[in-house]
Amino acid sequence: MPTLFHRYNELLKRRPWITNSLGCGIFFTIGDYAAQSLFPKEPDLPLDHKRMIRAGLYGSCFFAPISVLWHGKTLPKLKNPFINLFRRKKMEQVPAMRKKLHFYDSVFRMGIDQLIFPGLVWIPLYNTVMVILAGRDDPFQVIQDKLYNNWWRVLSANWTVWPGFQLFNLYFIPVHLRIVALNIWATGWNTFLSFVHNTKGHGHGSGHRLEEIVDIDDDEQEFYVFYD
């Protein structure tokens, strides 16, 4: 009798687009819920359900289709170009060498994935979509400010979290299950993304109002400067 996992496994193989869209939407919603619960903007602030819906829409309608196309369809076809065709054919004929070849290809795929997609696709896409869905005034200026403040910090954090897992994922996990594995691993990461995106001033202080005394030449002309 097929278990729930076997049925889900079959759905991932037969209908990867819709199955992964539903899964990504759920996991991004969970991530935003965790961010609001663990890092509320104010004590006792009720959950922002619209914000959770936006996170779910991003996961289902934007992240999932691109992820299926990249992680499920394109990345598995990439081969390490530093191994020539003659050597590749020779390695494919020996089981022990075949595993080594798979490892070399996995390292190359991980490198391409981490060098290109986080900084050039995922971080800009997340900020752009979430700002537009939120209906912010002057959205393009808001997007520019968020990327200016957060892009490098998020990217450098990404490189501490993802390369090792991606290598494991590409080497050990079957192709049709890789996005599921990514979603499970990304639960904490989605929480971090939501926190960074929704914390005012992140990257230049905590986002809370700061008060500083600016001392100029005349002591009697001290004044307060407020940063929002």
TrEMBL record:
Xref: Pfam families: Mpv17_PMP22
Family according to the record: Belongs to the peroxisomal membrane protein PXMP2/4 family.
Membrane topology classification: Multi-pass membrane protein
TM ranges: 17-35, 55-72, 115-134
GO cellular component, one term: mitochondrion
Name of the protein in question: Protein SYM1
Subcellular location(s) of the protein: Membrane
Domain of life: Eukaryota
Keywords: Membrane, Transmembrane, Transmembrane helix
